[in-house]
Amino acid sequence: MSGMDSSEQRRKRKRMLRSYSQAKHYLSLRRPLILCFSFFIFLLLLSSERFRPASFRPVLTASTTTLSLLSSTASNSILESFTNRNSNTRDSSSLRVQDRILFPDHVLLIVPNRFRQNDQLECVYHRLSNGSDELLQDGEKNAHLDFAIRPVLSTDVYDELRSIARCPLPSNNYSEAVDLRRRGGGYDWTAGINGTAYPWDRVVYEAVIDGDTAVVFVKGLNLRPHRKSDPTRLTCHFGLGNNGNWEKDQGFVLTTEAVTAAQEVVRCLLPRTIRNNPDKIHGVRVTIGYNTGSARAPVHVTLPSVATIYSSKSTVRNENQKKKKHELCACTMLWNQAPALKEWVMYHAWLGVERWFIYDNNSDDGIEDVVQELELQAYNVSRQSWPWIKTQEAGFSRCALRARDECHWVGFFDVDEFFYFPRAFRHHRGDGVPGENSLRNLVSNYSYSPTIGEIRTDCHSFGPSGLSSHPSQGVTVGYTCRLQSPERHKSIVRADLLDVTLLNVVHHFRLRQGFRHLNVPENVAVINHYKYQVWETFRAKFFRRVATYVVDWQEDQNQGSKDRAPGLGTEAIEPPNWRLRFCEVWDTGLKDYVLGYFADPATGSLPWEKSLL
């Protein structure tokens, strides 16, 4: 009996050993998977806000939905959701208002598609209930009384996909959430119930991809002017929503660090998903966040945003890089200066400018027709609608980015400023017209300089020169009396040598470390600045100044500043003897040159006086 027991015990031990060996073998095969899973859980805990130390600042954080980014397939699916969401809003028959911005004199509406050529649009205003901020809810009962209709002020193409419309400000007891409809068409009165109009001075208004970063343009941070700011207190957020509360609305948000900040320009790292798939990005919204409140109990705030980024167009950029760059381009921002544009472009084309970038700050004087006419005459001019007021410095930063792939040098000066070369114009050798390509030749001498990144030219300010009406042949011929001493300067910069912040003070940019500016002697070149023109033209300056940090004429500040007219008050009232002011030196140099070499010998007319349209 004992022998049988011992035999049974031996069989049990063998079975146990065999089961243990099998389990050991099974665990040895599964050990790598267990280790990988444990490491994945560790990364998940590390990325969680609950377990993250205060000093830890990751490049990319996201809510749990973003864990799918660990897979390239999942990453592509998220990008496809970006694309599909925006492509679904491009129905040409739709007039869905995507965003609204409340300006001092109008409401700007952004629509996620192009308007039809013959669209006749109307602004729709929803009536408030008893003057409160709540819209009436009895629309089905009194639909004909719950909204008002007014014609749009203007429409325009904004970017690759979006259009804009400007509407009059709403009357009392009407909501700022203005909508659009086609004239005579139907309208769903509930469309504007949840609409919001953002204030123009507290909003993220533009963004563009630049390499592995997004350059974001924002109002409301109140960063100190004319200097760099600390970017570490700022965060950048990327999402799909139509407002700042994306995480609640969409279930995920991508957050990255701000790497630079200056004035209204913040440079953000792109999330890895976007960096790896830039050509699939269409309409991803970007905003900026910051902490407010006490240090012990900070509150994170994200600004409202209408800024979206699109595909970086790597194919187009590569094609541009293969083309020979223009040696010299010009960028300007203007408002209602269409009559001056032809003279400015045609004259500077003779001096060697090859490409013009016009940033149009809400003009309504037919500038589109002037640009079309210049294009018909083979001038390479493009107009960009720039509806953001008091943003000249930011607009120039945006233009510098745009011009970098096309131009070696970019000049930033206004349409009432004309380069003049005293020596080249007066001392001519050989046949032909003197001064041809003088400006391009000047900058090209420094195109390969190891130290020069900017060329500065002094400005002479001209007055009304005794005139009471605008000179018919243009400013270069009409205004001939100026102040003795130069005022300020304007710059031409190497677009690839600008500081990463894109910091500028209108007249000049901050350069990359190791590069400096060059001052041009007055006997070589100056700028005739036709600053104080006849009162009919000059009084338009009282409407609004385009520069961010220059006080508007109506404001009783900085009365002694060179940005203001000496002795001029805050009201658009013509001072006594305006036509005789700002006249210390009679200077007919540029007038003589223009009439001598540009005028038609038979008629005496100048090229910019003719019209093809």
UniProtKB/TrEMBL annotation:
Cross-referenced InterPro entries: Glyco_transf_92
UniProt feature coiled coil, ranges: none
PANTHER family: GLYCOSYLTRANSFERASE FAMILY 92 PROTEIN, GLYCOSYLTRANSFERASE FAMILY 92 PROTEIN RCOM_0530710
Residue ranges crossing the lipid bilayer per the database entry: none
Predominant subcellular localization, coarse grouping: membrane
Gene Ontology molecular function terms on file: glycosyltransferase activity
Keywords from the named record: Glycosyltransferase, Membrane, Transferase, Transmembrane, Transmembrane helix
Gene Ontology annotations for the cellular component aspect, listed alphabetically: cytoplasm; membrane
Domain of life: Eukaryota
Catalytic class of the enzyme: transferase
EC number: 2.4.1.-
Keyword GTP-binding tagged: no
The name this protein goes by in its record: Glycosyltransferase family 92 protein
Membrane topology, record value: Single-pass membrane protein
Family to which this protein belongs: Belongs to the glycosyltransferase 92 family.
Pfam short name (any one): Glyco_transf_92
Subcellular location: Membrane
